[in-house]
Amino acid sequence: MKPNSRSLAARTALAFTAPLWLAGAAQAATITISCGSVGQDFEFCKQTTAEWAKKTGNEVKLFTIPNSTTDILALFRQMFAAKSTDLDVINVDVVWPGVIKDHLLDLKPYSKGVEKDHFPAIVANNTVDGKLLAMPWFTDAGLLFYRKDLVEKYKQKPPTTWEEMAATAKVIQDGERAAGNKDFQGFVFQAKAYEGLTCDAVEWIHSYKGGNIVNDKGEITVNNPNAVKALKTAASWIGTIAPQGVLNYAEEEARGVFQNGNAAFMRNWPYAWSLGNGKDSKIAGKIGVSALPKGGADGQNAATLGGWQLAVSKYSKNPAAAADLVMYMTSAEVQKMRAIKGSYNPTIAALYKDKEVLDANPFFGSLYSVFTSAVPRPATATGAKYPEVSAAFWNATHDVLSGQATAEDSLKKLEGKLKQVQRGKW
Questions:
Q1: Among residues 46, 92, 228, 379, which one has the fewest Cβ atoms lying within 10 Å of its Cβ?
Q2: Which CATH number fits domain 5-133+306-372: 3.30.499.10, 1.25.40.10, 3.40.190.10, 3.40.50.880?
Q3: What is the DSSP letter of 403?
């Protein structure tokens, strides 16, 4: 028997109400929204939805979702299958529009053309069959965070290749452990078997010029010598500069170790910047940020495209109010606040020239090209089958990192699995 989605929503919702603007006004709508649960997402969501509720006289409830993007998608798909009306506004990962397109409302009648202010590539990503299924909320790309004080202490330089990163991480790790910090690690990243590992591994493979899992034509390309080299390189970090426990790390586990002063390098998303420099951080003011390293001297920098959008469920009982909330949450005003206070990358190009935004996030300017040329996961090419493709890829990668399979065997097996998923076409 399926769990009752309404009781689930009731258990996990927090209500924010505001009086109606005018006595005798129309009955307020109640809108339930799911926001992110990583970093400061939830707190920002409380703040901005409360502002909207006060302005409109409506009521907003926040729906708590899992931390893992894999689990979030599974929950949404379960609710869509039941045509649940319990969730009006949902947060949509950049790779989901093609997967859940049949359950989202077309926002074009409500946007008034404001989407033209956002990055065109992201708007195109959110547009399926001519319908604007989601509004860009923030964009993301993987970055390398490092302890600039320790790099300087050990007379090293910020690395430009993965090989340099590993060597520098080992020098700093050995030095800090010798100085008494036995828990110090050289490098932490996302190696748990979930969507985050797909993001990391796409970066490794692309940086070694091994292409992607599937190319733009839908051809399976992942089983190649450069991809093998990339996964072998990543596997060599486990137990040398990265702890065995990293095999169960998602974003927050990696950030926790780094922010507590126990790692030299970290791969994460931009949100980690503001938290790492927060009042409760042990390394505030000691963090450097750079593009992710190249795969060897002849490799290339590669950052996986991330980011989230906001959409309205087709089953919402209050679509107009829900769409109005989406437009407010994705507005320049709200995106600027989130950029300054939470280092969330705006999807509005003009904000990258805003002095207050750049003062809070200097790397937004210096690494602008990283964010505008990030590598997409093959969600467009594989369509509704992307979740299966990604799961097969992250499991194959995890097998290599954990030593359960060689890179050669794992990628060969993966190729066969993807051909089964493909069944002639995506």
A1: 46
A2: 3.40.190.10
A3: T
